[in-house]
């Protein structure tokens, strides 16, 4: 009873109170550790995904480098092909004195074209096709009643692509409707 009357004397904690307090501390620690574990797992997943993305981008870069490594070199060779084609156009096919030279130029041109084709360099020769601004460069427009407006009439210079990517656009003349067929200002109104 003396304990009840003296407020300065503290009651010793009971075993149950100590266990409850210790259980609360453990539960808080477990919750904290679970949060840290979840954060670490999330970070690990993010790092793995980032590593996979880096690896995929590197593989794509290597693939593109292999695919388009010859782009500049092939572009430089196009001038040689153009010169051979012009030489053949300008020389007289009926002149017997020029026949051996023409045959040599034709053979050289064929070897060049076959070599470029082997490396996926394709010719864009749009004569008669509709004008496509992604593959053709219009140098002039010319009236024509024989073909649809917007068609390629002449090809000044063939275009080329490498592995589906435009290397050089074809330089072309595009048709337009004859002025007699084009509506005048009075006809529009």
UniProtKB/TrEMBL annotation:
<dbReference type="GO" id="GO:0042803">
    <property type="term" value="F:protein homodimerization activity"/>
</dbReference>
<dbReference type="InterPro" id="IPR000740">
    <property type="entry name" value="GrpE"/>
</dbReference>
<dbReference type="GO" id="GO:0000774">
    <property type="term" value="F:adenyl-nucleotide exchange factor activity"/>
</dbReference>
<dbReference type="GO" id="GO:0051082">
    <property type="term" value="F:unfolded protein binding"/>
</dbReference>
<keyword id="KW-0346">Stress response</keyword>
<dbReference type="InterPro" id="IPR009012">
    <property type="entry name" value="GrpE_head"/>
</dbReference>
<comment type="similarity">
    <text>Belongs to the GrpE family.</text>
</comment>
<comment type="subunit">
    <text>Homodimer.</text>
</comment>
<dbReference type="GO" id="GO:0006457">
    <property type="term" value="P:protein folding"/>
</dbReference>
<keyword id="KW-0143">Chaperone</keyword>
<feature type="region of interest" description="Disordered">
    <location>
        <begin position="1"/>
        <end position="26"/>
    </location>
</feature>
<comment type="function">
    <text>Participates actively in the response to hyperosmotic and heat shock by preventing the aggregation of stress-denatured proteins, in association with DnaK and GrpE. It is the nucleotide exchange factor for DnaK and may function as a thermosensor. Unfolded proteins bind initially to DnaJ; upon interaction with the DnaJ-bound protein, DnaK hydrolyzes its bound ATP, resulting in the formation of a stable complex. GrpE releases ADP from DnaK; ATP binding to DnaK triggers the release of the substrate protein, thus completing the reaction cycle.</text>
</comment>
<dbReference type="Pfam" id="PF01025">
    <property type="entry name" value="GrpE"/>
</dbReference>
<dbReference type="GO" id="GO:0051087">
    <property type="term" value="F:protein-folding chaperone binding"/>
</dbReference>
<protein>
    <recommendedName>
        <fullName>Protein GrpE</fullName>
    </recommendedName>
</protein>
<dbReference type="InterPro" id="IPR013805">
    <property type="entry name" value="GrpE_CC"/>
</dbReference>
<keyword id="KW-0963">Cytoplasm</keyword>
<feature type="compositionally biased region" description="Polar residues">
    <location>
        <begin position="12"/>
        <end position="22"/>
    </location>
</feature>
<dbReference type="GO" id="GO:0005829">
    <property type="term" value="C:cytosol"/>
</dbReference>
